[in-house]
Amino acid sequence: MTDDTRDDREERDDDCEDAGAGGLEDDLLEEELRQAAAVLDPVPEALRQVAVDAYALYDLDARVAELTFDSLTDALPVRGAENVPRMLTFQAGELSVDVEVGEDGLMGQVLPPRPARVEVLSGPGPVTVLTVDELGRFTGQAPPAGPFALRLRTGGEVVVTEWLRA
Amino acid sequence: MITGGTLPLTAYDDRSYTRGESVERAEVGALVRSAADGDAAAWKALVEGLGPLVWSVVRAHRLSDADGHEVYQTVWFRFAQHLGRIREPDKAGSWLASTARNECLKTLKNLNRLMVTDDPALLDRVCQDSTPEQAVLDSEEAAAQSERIRRLWQEFDKLGDRCRRLLRVLMASPPPSYQEVSAALGVAVGSIGPLRQRCLKRLRARLQARGAT
Fold first, then answer.
1. Which of A6, A33, A86 would you mutate first to test chain B, the one with the most B CBs within 10 A?
2. ipTM value of the model?
3. pTM value?
4. Domain map of chain B by residue range?
């Protein structure tokens, strides 16, 4: 790639450039890029609408359980192992939720153990209710496709895990 | 009094915009507070005003369309979730930009783990066709400008990674502040100006080499 080589050389040569002269020219070129982006690579309309609709997810009454562990970033990769389930831990005060997302689905537990109603949210739309036992262990048939959050109702309180991608 | 729907439009359309310390950022803070108080129009204004920045961050990281779309949604879902708890509402743009960056990096990390980085969609991004705006551009009287924009985009797309990433974020509309660019790319605010200058110079040189001045 001869272009890359040239670019690298230019990058070094440019370092002593006078800042004042090209200022207006730079602003104009950036503005042209802005127009090009607006035409050739705008926010897709469907996504814009999803973001507008996401306001429905604003819920002042729910506590947010923050992501405190994610095996994707916090654990060492397992060499040679494929399809290792993703382990997640969410925390809201004394309550935590352990979740394991694998190919076959989703399972987890509310800690300390307690009965709860657990729903999987996948956006502002309808929710999927999971089966939970009396110790707060739950399973879901299919792994979430796309962004998801869990909503827990336990002891008169509502807790929602931070949104993330499965 | 914030009326949501109209205020941000005038703020963002203001051409006397100055980078990084503008009135517009205070408006963002007001919009966040209004949305947190239940004003849906304020939320919509935030999506209109900051959506292009989030999208730019996603595009700057060259995710596949499917991944990019999911990251974009995740960022807004999380923003809605945290709306009432954002510590510095004036800096919501930086919050969104850095959340988008983190999700992009996570996605790239996951891809590396799954060894599918030879996905051609990742390595060879092409710009999307057939937006409504493009249809207008394709009309005959606008053909010349359309061609010019296409050439500009092609040359931009051939820049090295660092420059392409920086410029893709800078070209969000309305123009992001350097604080937002810093949050979007994980680079120091002070390094953005000099790098921007260098990258624009390289782009200009490319255009001139093609005879497309």
1. A33
2. 0.85
3. 0.81
4. 7-124+133-209
